[in-house]
Amino acid sequence: MTDLKERILKREKRSIERYKEERETFEKVMGTPKINVSVELPKGYEDKREEFLDLQKEESFLKDADRALGRVVKKHLKRIEEKAKKEKTNKSEDKD
């Protein structure tokens, strides 16, 4: 009986993993592109481990982090765009 139960659970686990992979693929193709960022516990706050882990569920923290990271992403994308424009300008000047 336990053997049957283990096989069913193993099959279910595989199905869930496959679903997650397919969902990620679908989101990459059809959804808004996303980047997952890992945040480490700052030095000196080792005693606040539980509170730190609870932040991932706190809506206000997630909004603040999203806004802050949004600004950083925009800054870097603008920098990349400006660099590409400079390279394009330099290439066109070299042709002349």
Key features of this structure:
96 residues, mainly alpha, 3 helices, flat
State the helix count.
3
Strand content: under 5%
What is the count of distinct domains? 2
User: How far apart are the termini?
Assistant: 80 Å
Provide the succession of SSEs: HHH
Overall pLDDT confidence: 90
Percent helix among the residues? over 70%
What value does the Rg take, in angstroms? 23 Å
Major sheet description: none
Global shape: flat
Structural class: mainly alpha
Instruction: State the low-pLDDT regions, or none.
Output: none
Number of strands: 0
Provide a brief overview of the structure.
The protein has 96 residues and is mainly alpha-helical. The chain is built from three helices and no strands.
Please, could you describe this protein's structure?
It is a single chain. By secondary structure, the chain is mainly alpha-helical. The chain has 2 domains: 1-34; 37-96, no CATH class. Helix content is 75%, strand content 0%. It has 3 helices and no strands. It is flat, with a radius of gyration of 23 Å. The chain starts with a helix and ends with a helix.
List the helices and strands and how they pair.
Layout: H1 2-30, H2 49-54, H3 59-95
